[in-house]
Amino acid sequence: MKGIETSMKKILLFILALMGIFSSMACSDTTTQGSYDPNTTWSGTPTTIKFSWWGTTDRNVATCLAIQLFHEKYPMYRVEGDQSVWTGYQTTLYNRLERNREADVFQVNYNWLYSMYGEYYFLDLNTLDLDLSDWPEGEHDPLTINGKVLGVSLSETGYIFYLNKKIYDDAGITEMPKTWDQLIAAGQQIGASSNYTKFAIGRLDAQQVAILMFTWLSQKYGKNLISDDHKLNFTRDELEEGFAFINDLRSNNVLIPSNANDTHPDGPTNPNWVTYQNYGGILQWNTAVSEYENVLSDKSNLVTAGMFQQEEDDNLGSYKKVSMALAVSRRVANDPAKKAAVKAFIEFMTSDPDAVRILGVDRGVPSNSLAYNTLLESTDPVFTATREWEGHVIVQQNYESQISEGINLYIHPYYEHDVFRRIYELPIEKFLFGTYTANQAINEIISKFNSTLAQVMGG
Amino acid sequence: MVGEKKWLPYVLLIPWIIGFAVFKAYPFVNSFILSLYEKINPFEQRFAGLGNYLRLFNSDDFFGEPFLNSLKVTAVYVFFTVPAVLTVSLLIAYVLSKKIKGVGIFRTAFYVPTVLGANVAIVLLWRELFQQNGLVNQGLSLLGIDAINWFGTSAGAMTAIIGLRVWQFGSTMLIFLAALKNVPETLYEAATIDGASKLKQFQVITIPMITPVILFNGVMRLVEMFQVFTGPKLITNGGPLQSTRMINMLIYEVAFENRNFNMGSAMSWILFLIIMVFTVLIFRSSKYWVHYSD
Fold first, then answer.
1. Interface contacts A/B by beta carbons within 8 Å
2. What is the mean pLDDT of chain B?
3. Measured between alpha carbons, how far is B42 from A459 in angstroms, rounded to an integer?
4. Which of A105, A176, A249, A372 could serve as A254's disulfide partner, Cβ 3.0–4.6 Å?
């Protein structure tokens, strides 16, 4: 009998231990960890809000910890975290929006405000009385439609190059390239020293080649891709030059000669990047670099190259945009208690020093100046030493430098629209696969660019 | 007493009727209505008549161009996959219908791929098999054949996707197997006495005797192949260069990712009409080649 009792106790303990493990894994809102001493007491029923986001493990863990801290600081509020991976997040969000089942606060991409009819689905944040004075001037202009602020900017991002230093070292290149010409020379040297198995950059997909070419053209001709009246801003001759430049990169061992040679669907897990390390670089949003960095056996090999320039002293050509924003469900408008909770939560996530330190640069370098300064001054860890931060600095420098020349390279809100992007990406992809000549690709882009952009902008 | 229970079958049918009405009939009718409207914003749509359908057949339209491409791609897939599945499954079934040692094991082994289905794990496995340094190319190199860039060319990618479906011939094979077992042995005995070879027997006895089952399998596979989704979505995601972007993938993208249910419904209805036309044609033609033994 005693034996049975002991066994039962063991089983009970085991079940309790399992429950403990699961509750801590599931972004618990009840477990208290850390040494924070709550300075507020609360005895009423807390107001519960839901927050959904996408992210990888680092971001998920950091967000859960921040939510935990929020509960300690604001015991009158509870936040249910709803984390998911990137794939399918937008479709799920859309489904929920249509059924009034979305979270109270949710993470969005900047262009979704436009492509997902944010004006109809998201709360006008003016109604929350948020103080947006700690963000750079004009930061929320792209997030404002018809006077309605539809998202709170978390960070900005831009496409820049990162290089795998080992490949350059192995080829005997001691100084990393800064200009396009130096990049081409590096490609030749890397090719010659590796029997043409390694490349200065490697494989870029159509989206990346598009931004590369438009950046190069912007540097050269001082124009954004899309004009203020929403038209293609480059002429046929200029586009011809752009395609010829891509060909130069391919024939000089900077890019692979044909994308048909490597059709791996995912950049960070591509064996030519991870295992064989045949590719010497990536062109990526500075907020997404960690995916490529974390898979390398020696992360210190990844160095921030920024954007290659026409001349060594230039600092031009970074397209940028708001990387991520927090949007709020329009249902919150009818619930004063939730409104207060949502406001407190957004302020906490974007500017509370403790929360900011926990969240770090997992959603990019914060655009809120209080948060930015908190991370800037942090010594443990040193956020400014991250590839995200280095990239952010270069993107901002280049963007401002281009602004000073009268050119605004802010990414058009419909540039990444699912329908519109096919208009330039598909011809470029065909060109990269060798099934289209440059002329065929240009003809297709020119013939459909303006009309399609007008159609998608018209809804 | 018996009369009192006449209502029972109808009561038992109610769950099915509810399921059919909610999940089949309503979406069917509603999708047609949706296809006649165009979206202005999430809360407004306006009547467009056949406007959506006309756009889909305009190759300059940004819905029409991918739609026509997907129709072509799907047609190629169906054209090769249906005959291939029927042929392979019939031949395997024919062999397995013979009294050979360990036939039970073989039948099970050949049916396993179908049990596994086009689930994500199998599809991802298939994708790895056809990579540049995958098992398929390694096998080819043992035969002295150069590695094939399966996913770098349209033909290679399509072949890999067709291969996955043909590999899953189990259920078709099982139906053929049952049909072959029903062919009277006496016919073969008589043919053997008359000196007919095995090939001749297959041509003049086996095939004609199982034509009703060939018709059934043909129609079922045709309908199924037109609606292919999982394999191409996960193996190639429509690439390279949209050459494996099947019509169902496009419908999914337009309806669920772009949230344009009006255009997605119009595409679905065109797909439905195409399948219906082919099905009717096959049934109409069956009087010339299907033999029913009365």
1. 59
2. 91
3. 10
4. A249
Establish if B43 touches chain A: CB-CB under 8 angstroms. yes
* Cα A88 to Cα A86: distance, rounded to the nearest angstrom: 6
Chain B neighbors of A265, CB-CB under 8 A: 237, 239
Q: Do A260 and B60 touch (CB under 8 A)?
A: no
How do residues A81-133 score in pLDDT, each as one tens digit?
999 999 889 999 999 999 999 999 999 999 999 988 899 999 999 999 999 99
Pairing of strands A77-84, A47-54: parallel
CB A255 within 8 A of CB A201: yes
Q: According to DSSP H, which parts of B103-240 are helical?
A: 103-116, 120-129, 135-142, 154-167, 170-181, 185-193, 198-201, 207-209, 211-226, 230-235
Residue A150 in contact with residue A143, Cβ under 8 Å? yes
The rounded distance, in Å, linking the Cα atoms of A260 and A263 is 6
Alpha-carbon gap, residue B161 to A443, rounded angstroms: 32
Write the CB contacts of A456 (distance below 8 Å, at least 6 apart in sequence). Answer: A115, A414, A417, A419, A420
Nearest to A260 among B66, B149, B258 (CB): B149
What backbone phi and psi angles, to 5 degrees, belong to B232? -60, -35
User: Of A259, A418, A429, which has the smallest distance from its Cβ to B257's Cβ?
Assistant: A418
Mutate to test the interface with B, among A263, A270, A453 (most CBs of B within 10 A): A263
Each residue's pLDDT tens digit, A215-265: 999 999 999 999 999 999 999 999 999 999 999 999 999 999 999 988 887
User: Which residue from A minimizes the CA distance to B256?
Assistant: A91
B257-273 confidence digits (pLDDT tens): 888 899 999 999 999 99
Asked if residues A292 and B268 have their Cβ atoms less than 8 Å apart, the reply is no
Q: At what angle do helices B261-289 and B211-226 cross, to 10 degrees?
A: 170
- Whether residues A426 and B242 touch (CB distance < 8 A) is answered with yes
| CA-to-CA separations, B45 to B38, B42, B260, B262, in angstroms, rounded | 5, 8, 11, 9
Q: Does the complex come out with an ipTM higher than 0.90?
A: no
Tokens of residue A17, six digits: 């231990």
Name every residue whose Cβ is closer than 8 Å to that of residue B154 and which is 6 or more positions away in sequence: B240, B241, B243, B244
What is the DSSP code string of B83-113? HHHHHHHHHHHHHHTS--TTHHHHHHHHHHH
Superfamily of the domain at B68-289:
MetI-like (1.10.3720.10)
Q: What is the pLDDT of residue B121?
A: 81
Give the residue among A208, A179, A191 at the shortest CA–CA distance from A270: A208
> Mean pLDDT, chain A, as a whole number?
90
Among chain B residues, the shortest Cα distance to A120 is held by B42
- The tally of CA atoms less than 13 A away on the side-chain side of residue A235 is 5
Q: Which residue segments constitute the domains of chain A, with CATH numbers given?
A: 36-157+322-383 (3.40.190.10), 160-320+397-457 (3.40.190.10)
- The span from the CA of B200 to the CA of A52, in Å, is 67
Residue A406's pLDDT is what? 87
CA dihedral A71, A75, A80, A84 (to 10 degrees): -20
Query: Domain coordinates of chain B in residue numbers?
Result: 68-289
Return the closest-CA partner of residue A232 out of A247, A245, A217, A249: A217
